[in-house]
């Protein structure tokens, strides 16, 4: 019974991994599979991103500001990210590797304060909670 339960659990986690919109690894690298904790962390980040997109941006706003034929990331000297209200990274662009040496999958779902110098934590707190006096 325990073996069947573990087998079914493994199937569910494999299905969850296949459902997540993760960027595919290059053909040179071996196919990677995530551990269960990472899959849950990435799933939570994905669900939070969907919630932000569904509640925070109206479709009219997106259509009005659409720029066709321009790759905005190539115009930036950096990378883009979206933080949850609690300061967790819920979206980060794939080019983060070029600047931090970490893949977007490594950063997703973790508190952004882990990647910010301790002297700058008060500024990060102010950015994530602008209405509060800090």
Layout of helices and strands:
Blueprint: H1 2-19, H2 36-56, H3 59-64, H4 72-75, E1 81-83, E2 89-92, H5 96-100, H6 104-107, H7 121-128
Antiparallel strand pairs: 1-2
Describe the protein in words.
The structure is a single chain. The chain is mainly alpha-helical and about 130 residues long. Helices cover about 50% and strands about 5% of the residues. A hairpin with a 5-residue loop joins strand 1 (about 80-85) and strand 2 (about 90).
Essential attributes:
two-stranded antiparallel sheet, 7 helices, 134 residues, mainly alpha
Distance between the termini: 54 Å
Element-level helix/strand string? HHHHEEHHH
Mean pLDDT: 78
Count of helical stretches? 7
Rg from C-alpha positions? 18 Å
What portion of residues is helical?
40-55%
Can you tell me the overall shape?
Answer: globular
- Strand-residue fraction? 5-15%
What are the segments in which pLDDT stays under 50 over at least 5 consecutive residues?
A: none
Describe the oligomeric state of these chains in a short phrase: single chain
How do the strands of the widest beta sheet line up side by side?
1-2
Give the biggest sheet.
2 strands, antiparallel
- The helix-and-strand class reads mainly alpha
Task: Give the tally of β-strands.
Answer: 2
